[in-house]
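ugh ok fine here u go
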Amino acid sequence: MEEQILLRITGEDHPGQTAAITQILAKYDVQILDIGQAVIHKTLSLGILVRVSNNNSGYMMKDLLFKTSELGVNISFEPVSDEDYEAWVSRQGKNRYILMIMGRTLSAAQIQSATKVVSEQGLNIDAIRRLTGRMSILHPREHERACIEFSLRGTPANRSELQASLMSLSSDMGMDFSLQEDNMFRRMRRLICFDMDSTLIQTEVIDELAIRAGVGDKVKAITERAMRGEIDFKDSFTERVALLKGLDESVMQEIAEQLPITEGVDRLMYVLKRYGLKIAILSGGFTYFGHYLQRKYGIDYVYANELEIVDHKLTGRYVGEIVDGRRKAELLRLIAQVEKVDMQQTIAVGDGANDLPMLSEAGLGIAFHAKPRVVQNARQSINTIGLDGVLYFLGFKDSYLDETAQQ
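structure:
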């Protein structure tokens, strides 16, 4: 006859502890049914569920007691009946989700609020891990960030309600979140498409051009209404471009060389290229600036709007089809088709109303420091930290990123 026993080992962490314990388990030909370990501030928490012969279980536990005493850690034993074990196994087939919460720092109140929402939806937390490095108290670094990943099991009572509750928490408590199904696509993203203005760069280039043309206030007012979705993008675009008539072409180079790059873009682009993702800019801005960023970061595709220039002066007109919200979603699908990428493997990141179609179309749509209407309609958002927060949504840990930077 055989029985199941759950072993719980806790105490100060030292190298070799797991090896010493499993050496004893091997001596008694134990079958390991489950195992998990975590270390928090040098404190070990190791759990092992074993199946062992009734004839050997007493001797095994005696040897483990002596060994753990020698190692300076505590051990407890809990019998698990066949019925309890089978009930536990039957729950393993349920749906799985990954919830990430993120901010400059994370408080107990923020974590409690998120886990309460999860519990109310009938989901169980299987595992928790920290993706960001440990913060220094004495020497805090610039642009500090914290990200915690929860592995969830179960089926939400109401998926839409769960999403809405998390989005509300994001706004009310100043934290970001991502809720994704834990499937193979989450681990195999291959194409990422970015808006440019107010996403990759911290400005709207058309506003910068307008300032040089002496019509800054007029254009900015139209831009803000368009980004909030209050007026049609195409109409607003045509109206704004017309106000730039007569501006010298050389101004674009001056602006390009002074573009305020968004926090985290350098790190994000390096890692994306390092891991082989295809990168695209799909922008309602202008190709001149998109190509500037393309050369800087090795971006694979740039689709934006082309300003008409005659005799080195802007004519107040544009060339070709306007890249609006509909066109962005269309280009996302086209690039995915060209690269032979499943749509579930795509990511889209943007801030404005004209980004909503591609955010909805992508396998992972992320609203970045977005306008209220965009945040309300997005499935996940980043509002508290830089653009490299996208990497945590892809499952990267700071330890991976540090290793990548050193290579």
